[in-house]
What we know:
Blueprint: E1 3-8, H1 13-24, E2 31-38, E3 40-47, H2 50-57, E4 67-73, E5 88-89, E6 95-103, H3 106-115, H4 127-139, H5 145-153, E7 158-166, E8 169-178, E9 183-186, E10 191-194, E11 206-209, E12 214-218, E13 223-227, E14 238-239, H6 255-261, H7 263-271, E15 275-276, E16 281-282, H8 291-295, E17 299-304, H9 306-323, E18 327-331, H10 332-335, E19 346-352, H11 358-369, E20 373-378, H12 384-388, E21 391-394, H13 407-424, H14 431-452, H15 455-465, E22 470-475, H16 480-494, E23 497-502, E24 519-524, H17 530-541, E25 546-552, E26 564-568, H18 576-594
Parallel strand pairs: 17-18, 17-19, 19-20, 20-21, 22-23, 22-24, 24-25, 25-26
Antiparallel strand pairs: 1-4, 1-10, 2-3, 2-4, 5-6, 6-7, 7-8, 8-12, 9-10, 9-11, 11-14, 12-13, 15-16
This protein binds 2-deoxy-2-amino glucitol-6-phosphate.
Amino acid sequence: MCGIVGYIGKREAAPILLNGLKRLEYRGYDSAGIAVVNGEMQVLKRKGSVSNLEEFMSGTVMIGATAGIAHTRWATHGSPSDRNAHPHMNVSGDIALIHNGIVENYTSLKKDLIGQGYAFTSETDSEVLVHLIDRIWKADPSLDLEGAVRQALRHVEGAYGLCIVSSREPDKIVVARKGSPLVIGIGEGEYFIASDAAPIVEHTNKVVYLSDGEMAVVTRNNYTVKTIENVEQEKRITELDFSLEKIEKGGYEHFMLKEIFEQPEVMRDVMRGRVRLDEGRIQLGGIEDYLDRLKQAKRIVICACGTSWHAGLIGEYLIEEFARIPVEVDYASEFRYRNPIVTSDDVVIVISQSGETADTLAALRLAKEKGAMVMGICNVVGSTIARETLCGMYTHAGPEVGVASTKAFTAQVIVLFMLAMALSKGRTISHDEIRLYLRDLADVPDKVARILEQNDAIKEIAAEFKDAKNALYLGRGFNFPVALEGALKLKEISYIHAEGYPAAEMKHGPIALIDEDMPVFFIATRDNTYTKIISNIEEVRSRKGRVIAIASEGDSEIGRLAEHVIYIPQASGPVMPLLTVIPMQLLAYHIATLRGCNVDRPRNLAKSVTVE
Ligand code: AGP
């Protein structure tokens, strides 16, 4: 959700903070703000993007300050506006606070504080925190900032990643974490704080991840980490393994496009060292010790949200097809609230690009409580979900900045494919079959590269549909989740209403929507459902719907039925989603950019959803 940056050291804080905010803007762009301490506190904040704040700051004096905090907001309580922007300040203006998360009991806290004479200037839940700290500190002046924050947090219910500075103690930043990630970057005589590593990586690759329930006091010379209950913690320093180049656009107009085009390379990275083609086997380091237990699972439950949930659906098809273990796929948000039946015979797999999605994390914790073995598939190394699962696999897709997930999805599907193979080995499919499927998987990156060569042609098709009001996406079997993903991509970045359906379900309702203005994107590759899909295409044509087909190279029939055909290389059904999703991503990207939408920062969305 919101992005947090902090800096304390010897250099000018303001430019470092602003630059950090730019790297974090994918986490929220409703407003941005900055507070620096230089004798006294200076706070500037502005509705809109970081560039609005930057413009507003030019000409103002923040020179000489070497400590400060900054925030980019994704609104939860209170509309996007200057006054709801963070940092929030106490009435006397000597404490500034930024917050990521939700204060669930803010209404009662606010009522108490108002009763004690506190005046609120924003509609946010976060503002209660700064007044609460102020009240506690005033009531007991023997406390320091750290002590006041610690005491305040005892009254707070909900989730937070917090950074607080005070001109009364100008040489420190106090941070606290419960439910919203925080990372401390360790430099030479300087420290960086952020809600993820993106703003830190250009300064240092040494980081410490705070765990839930921990606080840290960061000064120019050191940092100490304690629990909120004041117990000192030993923290391990982790080395980041991604470079600055990986989080920059590298010549592409948008991160999303860059990430789409990175997929062949990312796919090779995901498989590297894991797919042993010569031996016809899979080596999955992160789960090796747990593989037997995984194979013995009575049932596998996959929990995730959004695009990761779509990958999970493909995982269900793959694991059931190959390993013959029953699989259920749950929206993490439903799983956690519907009292699911989960036992120690079950394995729960949580899938999350960010590794911080609040619903997925809560599902993980619930599954653990119920005694299930929990495995994670995450992209962000060291993320909360990665740390709280018993075992797991990283997707190694590199930082994904575009809010619309692309390369993380295909990486998740590859991981699930490899997992399905590993679960099948020695049980349900022969060594020769595994070898064949691995060959097919290994060929995918080159085939994806060939599909990407059609980018210009796909853009031309996109131009014809850029003014559509609605769109339908239809697929069957392994390609049904791709239809869902295609529809999600289109709606989240172009704001066109789109629905994904299993193609055969169309006649049970959505067919009523079809008229001459309705684009219908069919995934009609050559597999065992092909003839059925062709009948579905005929049904749409006879109602004058506009058919765009994703079809297999060499299919000479489909051109007669569809207004446009995007041909993709042939592959076996189980690997097909890795190919069919690519035109879907490009279509959504081009339709959205042709409509003038900001695809990297779609309205109302944020990259990682750390609130419920
Ligand atoms: C995808 O394009 C979305 N923006 C969104 O659905 C995302 O996949 C979802 O929020 C889950 O995120 P996660 O993978 O980081 O848990």
